[in-house]
Amino acid sequence: MISTTDPHRNRQPRNISDAEWELRCQLAAAYRLAARFQLTDLIYTHISVRVPGRHDQFLINPHGWFFDEITASSLVKIDVEGRPVDDDRFEVNAAGFTIHSALHMSRPDVECVAHLHTNAGMAVAALQCGLLPLNQISMQFYNRVNYHDYEGISLDLDERSRIVQSMGDAHYLILRNHGLLTTGRSVAEAFTRIFYLNRACEIQVQTLSMGQPYTLPSPDVCEHAAKQHDDYAYLDTVHLDREWTALLRLLDRDGGDYRC
Asked: Which of 62, 111, 166, 225 has an alpha carbon within 20 to 30 A of 217's alpha carbon?
């Protein structure tokens, strides 16, 4: 376990149900995995999840912590106004609250929201063409990614309505000149979605950097491939469970202290 002089670091908050504790472990795992795969931006960006049985509370990372420090007990429970619930040990990032609360408040189907500032994600977010269907990984996002124009650092609460409008009923949002965002019915789904969305951006950056002509499949083929992925992902969650379980084993081999 990471040593610390903070006596509150791994103090379990009050009034935690078994369901919430398990969800905290899942969310802490997502943060650790983001760190492991180098998807972080120092202490910035966020992954949040709705508190079980509540539509007005969600869990998010404490501001000022690296992703590889996050534990289940350190996550902050806040309401839709950004106020801590039953625990005032840590603060949260205001911009993270703006973006994540917008989707948790407006989309009852969204349990988890992941927002990252990766190099490749921000690079593609700056391109007028956006994400291109250049490879099999990017095909899954064909006509399924929405875009939100940059308005500055997301500190103005009135931007929430425009984020919601940009997102619509999609699960993928590229915030232009900013970064990537995905939603999911679970922590596992939101994390794997943003992992592969970022991977598609990485491949696009590498492909375009070669300065050579590239090929794009026909729109019909791209849509067919995307539909195949929809069926694979939405109709059979066994594959997601296997993938997430394997990722948790990866963390557990390092000691599993994210569960503290």
From this structure: 166
Sequence length of the chain is: 260
pTM of the predicted structure, to 2 decimals: 0.92
- The secondary element (H helix, E strand) that includes residue 46 is strand 46-50
| Chain segment 198-257, per-residue pLDDT in tens | 999 999 999 999 999 999 999 999 999 999 999 877 656 778 889 999 999 999 998 999
Query: Phi/psi at 4 (nearest 5 deg)?
Result: -160, 155
CA–CA separation, 28 vs 60, rounded Å?
A: 9
Is residue 144's pLDDT more than 80?
yes
SS3 content of the chain, % helix, strand, coil (to 5): 45, 15, 40
* Eight-state DSSP code of residue 14: S
Consecutive H or E run containing 116: strand 112-116
Q: Is 19 exposed, middle or buried (0-12, 13-18, 19+ CB in 10 A)?
A: exposed
Single-letter residue type at 22: E
**Helices 159-167 & 94-106 angle (0-180, nearest 10):** 50
Q: How much is the CA Rg of the chain, to the nearest whole Å?
A: 18
Number of other residues whose CB lies within 10 A of the CB of residue 254: 11
- Assess contact for 1 and 68: CB atoms under 8 A: no
Q: What is the pLDDT of residue 91?
A: 77
Enter the tokens of residue 204. Answer: 């696009």
pLDDT (tens digit per residue) in 7-52: 445 566 667 899 999 999 999 999 999 999 999 999 999 999 999 9
- Residue owning tokens 């000022």: 64
